[in-house]
Specification:
Elements (H helix, E strand, L loop, with lengths): L7 E12 L6 E11 L3 E5 L6 H8 L7 E10 L2 E2 L5 H7 L4 E4 L3 H4 L6 H12 L4 H14 L5 H6 L7 H13 L5 E5 L7 H18 L2 E6 L2 H7 L2 E6 L2 E7 H6 L4 H11 L1
Parallel strand pairs: 3-8, 3-9, 6-7, 7-8
Antiparallel strand pairs: 1-2, 1-4, 4-5, 9-10
Helix pairs in contact: 4-5, 4-7, 5-7
The protein binds adenosine-5'-triphosphate and magnesium ion.
Length: about 260
């Protein structure tokens, strides 16, 4: 008898990215990892290890200065690595949601939060009037915001850091994606607020059936939130596996160094 098949919502296979130009440096070197459906996978590594580049490569948003040399990106069983920018636009935001480190710079300062989340819906679907408004309020509510009407009417600068981050998560989930990529989503928050936002990720995983890639430099965030971890060092995966296993019995010297740095 065989056990249940654990399908992967995302599988990155041999992804290499380098800076364009004759002496282009390698930014990602044959990176491979899977995101099993319904799991939270932490991508951890020091500054400049390529974490953000990895998220951008998966969503087809590599900066012009970088090129993908090789690798397959299998999303929902389909290889999307050859997709055009128009095809990627259909997936990005709707199927793969994204949340970034600094909501203050990601949100337009002169538009209300509600109008910006509505714009995300309208980029993918025809909706209007009360139905659109309810979609926006429901996403804010799902993100743990108890007074969604006030938050929807607010401008980004009027909200606390924690509320802005929740609003950004609302924007990332409003179209009902099945994969969320969150890049340093809690780095700008105080420790208490950080814990609450990380708990929100775990709730969303259960309530919406989301799979999540959690990009962070902080092993504490991974330990608290993720099921699996991928350790990146200068563009290469040095170790990956079950969080408890990797953080309790690290094989790579680099993982041990990260763990030691945590104790200082
Ligand atoms: N637009 C760009 N043009 C040129 N080089 C870049 C660009 N963006 C990033 N890099 C370089 O690519 C490498 C990986 O950067 P990346 O931002 O992916 O790292 P990171 O792990 O996210 O770091 P951090 O923890 O500081 O966010 C770094 O050496 C960085 O200097
Ligand atoms: Mg980064």
């Amino acid at each position: 008898m065989t056990g249940p098949v654990q399908e992967n919502i995302l599988s990155v296979q041999g992804l290499s990215v380098r800076l364009c130009g004759e002496n282009g440096t390698d930014i990602l070197r044959s990176v491979s990892f899977d995101v099993p459906s319904g799991m939270i996978v932490g991508i951890v590594g020091g500054s400049g290890s390529g974490k953000t580049t990895l998220g951008l490569a998966v969503t087809g948003l590599l900066p012009a200065a970088m090129e993908r040399l090789s690798g397959r990106i299998i999303y929902g069983g389909r290889d999307i690595s050859g997709f055009s920018s128009a095809e990627m636009r259909v997936i990005r935001g709707a199927k793969i949601g994204m949340a970034f480190q600094e909501p203050m710079s990601a949100f337009d300062p002169v538009m209300t939060i509600g109008a910006q989340i509505a714009e995300t819906v309208l980029a993918h679907e025809a909706a209007s009037g009360p139905a659109l408004r309810e979609r926006v309020l429901a996403a804010l509510r799902s993100s743990g915001i108890s007074d969604p009407v006030r938050v929807a009417a607010a401008y980004p600068f009027e909200l606390s850091g924690g509320l802005r981050q929740r609003a950004m998560i609302a924007q990332a989930i409003v179209c009902g994606p099945n994969l969320l990529i969150a890049d340093e989503p809690t780095s700008s928050l105080d420790i208490d607020t950080q814990g609450k936002v990380l708990d929100l990720f775990k709730e969303l995983r259960c309530s919406l059936g989301l799979s999540i890639i959690l990009i962070t430099h902080d092993l504490g965030v991974v330990r608290r939130t993720a099921d699996r971890v991928v350790v990146l060092c200068r563009g290469s995966v040095v170790e990956q596996g079950d969080v408890r296993q990797v953080l309790t019995f690290p094989h790579a010297v680099y993982t041990r160094t990260l763990l030691e740095a945590e104790m200082i």
